[in-house]
Amino acid sequence: MATITLDTVRKVYAGGVEAVKGVSIDIADGEFIVLVGPSGCGKSTLLRMIAGLEEISTGEIRIGEKVVNKVDPADRDIAMVFQNYALYPHMTVYNNLAYGLKNRGMAKDEIDRRVKEAARILEIGDYLDRKPRALSGGQRQRVAMGRAIVREPAAFLFDEPLSNLDAKLRVQMRVEIKRLQKSLKTTSVYVTHDQLEAMTLADRLVVLSGGNIEQIGAPIDVYDKPASTFVASFIGSPAMNLLKVRKGAAGLELETGSGLTAANPYGRDRYTLGVRPEHLSLVEAGVPAGALTLKATVNVLEPVGAESYLYASCGGTGQEIVIRVESHARFEPGQEITLTAQAKDVHFFDADTGRRVES
Amino acid sequence: MYKSKLSDHLILILGSVLMIGPVLIVFLTSTHDAVEVHRFGLMASWGDHFTETYNKVLFKEGGFTGQVTGVRMLINSLILGIGFGIGKIVLSMLAAYAIVYFRFRMGTFFFWVIFTTLLLPLEVRIMPSYEVVQQLGMLNSYSGMIVPLLASATGTFYFRQFFKSVPDELLEAARIDGAGPFKFFIDILVPTSKTMIAAIFIIMFVYGWNQYLWPMMMTNDEAHFTLVRGIKQILLVWVGSQIPEYNEAFALAVLAMLPPVLVVLIFQSWFIKGLTESDK
Amino acid sequence: MKRVQFTNASLPYLLLLPQLAIIVIFFYWPSAQAIQSSFYLEDPFGFGSTFVGMENYTDVLGSNEYASIARFTIAFTLLVTFLSLSIALLLAVKADAVLKGSSTYKTLLMWVYAVAPPVAGLMGVMFFDMHIGPFLKVAAFFGWDFKIGLNYFDTAFAMVVIAVWKQIPYNFIFFLSGLQAIPKSVREASMIDCRSGFRRFWSIILPLLAPTAFFLLIINMTYSLFDTFGIVDVVVKDKAANNPITLVYKVYMDGFRGGDLGGSSAQSVILMLVVFVLTIFQFRFIERRVHYG
């Protein structure tokens, strides 16, 4: 068990490419941190720097109280689960789990105890004598987890461990990882590009873009108050609707056309305005108009079962928006609708920098 | 669906016959006696001198040269084939391991020093190579036969390609598991490369066994003759003889073909995999 | 290279040492010697040597004999390469097309790879032999008085046949595995787009095989130049006089049999240049192929 501290960590590759641009994070003991972002955002590099697989250009990484910049991966007291599992193909499951312990010179019966214990927790006891190629994807994933658990490390590092699994298994393993981490209480850093995985697993999310931290916070805080248009569009599915607006005669209006009325709470000339699909509702008889109203034309209705997504365009040919509607709702293409949202659900971002505007 | 036509099979059967036929006829002819062959030509039937001929070729001293038996040549061929195969694998695995898995000064330089050898086959520097081996006093020795043949990067190139295809994460996982360079090589890399090692061994064994020019230059002492080298001797004995010992010549040719052909047939899938995947 | 590498002060050098030592002693030293002695004239009785500059080269390149051997070598190389590639391609396409017995044909057609060139040469010599060779009877039927070892053309014919026979399996293995690497979906798409099997082969399959074919082209040329030594040696039986020989055989004859070290070395260096150019082509190509792969 340990804290992990990243202090203005940078990674510059030999070619001059700056993959990580001065990142600082304080990870508490037992915390589950998820690094999330699109590919190339530096999240894997950051994880690999914590693991010691990638040199740190400048800055400092501490595990516990110890600065580990120059410490060998084997001596950092961490365990890592790889995307492709990286199981040793010629070793049995038992030996895959035991290899790291043997290399530490641990006593045979202690190794045996730990391997059996990990196998019990992960329910892979029946496969201990098999080679990895005789296992299914999900079983390999468990073995990879087992290899991390037996070490009883100060921290778990996960590098997109679920991305090679099919959708159903992914959900199942996601729950399992969460449960396991809560019971072991081991500090964990988890890398993924899947925002749903990030939301469900994290105690705190770190959203990365272009080697910089966009936002750190509890999943629901990040969801409720995205710090930038990038976070707004990356977290949440379907993504938040973003509309270019400018100051008009009365409040705000769309840059591309008419149909929008909204107040201008911060008095600026231009914004990017954001509303989540679930926060837009239809103005019908009995539903009062909120702080924002928007006229739109229906394009297509996409039922997904529990709900439906309604795609519509507004502001002339301008922009397409998504509205989450009840699953049995009926709409015709070309139908004119009026939408509204409450003031607390309308987000304002700087039109140029994309940063959240709160004053 | 494509329908296989009769003509496809006919072409393939014709091809197979052209490949197998000559060897089969050579084998069948080797079971007849020399006079018969001399009189009637090549045989497509089983003769009754199989045991006699092969016994003579394998065990009789002086079958062709006065001093060396077929068994001796067979053993020499095995030594050359196996020695070359093992030497190649050990040297090239170590070198490829250094090149792929280590960052060190002059790494690129050494890479080119080694891979330049792919440019020039032994045949074009055969005379000076002979002189070097002579100066080192390695004529008529197994090491003299094997070691100069090892001076090429083919094996290193194969292993380099293979190591590059081994997932990076395997090394990363092993490092987190506390394995250093030695442990990683012995515990992880060598076992992972098993199939590749087998494939390269087969290719190299066949290559070594089939060497002709180099052993011919290197050895005039008959105790070091290989089977393939022996072929030349048969032909020299023939020149001027009344009734050439066709049957014995063919028996020797069959013996010279048999082990590499068997190895290639038995380990066919490994061999093809090694050949086609490593040449990329 | 790998994302993560070991950094160890001495280990990589130790690992490279055996390979480097052998390469320096048995590759660079002899190669350097070849270049050096190509500028010297060796005394036939072993009393030192004299520097003669480019004389060995001008002698070699000016000689009619060398020119005719070079011409033969080129013709031989082109013929062997063309024939063994086309026959192997035909067989590979057919073996890939048949539904039943594909792997049996593969086994039957590939194993000759393991036969040593001089052994193939010996067998060939027997089939074309004046006393016992069955081919002579066939040739005689068409009025061809076949004389291997005596008639230049007949000997060359036999050499080409043997060299092609020996090389077909190698090309076959590569063509077949190249064909089998073409995704099934691509074939299916081409079947929907194109009715004629021949056109499909010409416009879809052949372009996809082009990398393999180009690789084999270089390999076959080096094979014809160098690896056929055993075949040539067995066919001409040390009596090169009126027989066709290849350039490599000439290097061996002049150097080892004739004792003309300088001339032989100059020829070696000329051959080195030829292979060098061929291999540079191959390297450039390999790099490209790695990109695509």
Beta strand count of chain B: 0
Question: What is the H-and-E element order of chain B?
Answer: HHHHHHHHHHHHHHH
Fourth-level CATH superfamily of chain B: MetI-like
CATH architect. name of chain C: Orthogonal Bundle
Q: End-to-end distance of chain C, in Å? A: 16 Å
Fill in the CATH topology of chain B. MetI-like fold
Distance from first to last alpha carbon of chain B: 31 Å
> What's the level 1 CATH class of chain C?
Mainly Alpha
Describe this structure in words.
The complex is a heterotrimer of chains A (359), B (280) and C (293). Chain A is α+β, with helices and mostly antiparallel strands. Chain A folds into two domains: 4-234, 3-Layer(aba) Sandwich (Rossmann fold); 241-350, Beta Barrel (OB fold (Dihydrolipoamide Acetyltransferase, E2P)), CATH 2.40.50. Chain A contains eight helices and 20 strands. Chain A has a six-stranded mixed sheet, sandwiched between helices. In chain A, strands 13, 15, 16, 17, 18 and 19 form a six-stranded antiparallel sheet that branches. A four-stranded antiparallel sheet of chain A has the order 2-1-4-5, with helices on one face. The mean pLDDT of chain A is 91. With 280 residues, chain B is mainly α. Chain B has a single domain, classed as MetI-like fold, CATH 1.10.3720. In chain B, 70% of the residues lie in helices and 0% in strands. Chain B is built from 15 helices and no strands. The radius of gyration of chain B is 23 Å and the shape is globular. The relative contact order of chain B is 0.15. The model of chain B has no long low-confidence stretch (mean pLDDT 86). Chain C is an all-alpha fold. Chain C is built from twelve helices and two strands, in the order H-E-E-H-H-H-H-H-H-H-H-H-H-H. Chain C has helices spanning 11-37, 55-62, 64-97, 102-110, 117-127, 134-141, 152-180, 184-193, 197-227, 229-236, 247-257, 261-292; strands at residues 40-42, 49-51. In chain C, helix 7 (152-180) packs antiparallel against helix 10. Chain C is globular, with a radius of gyration of 24 Å. The interface between A and B is medium-sized, with 26 and 17 residues. Chain C: InterPro entries: MetI-like (IPR000515), MetI-like_sf (IPR035906), UgpAE/MalFG_permease (IPR050809).
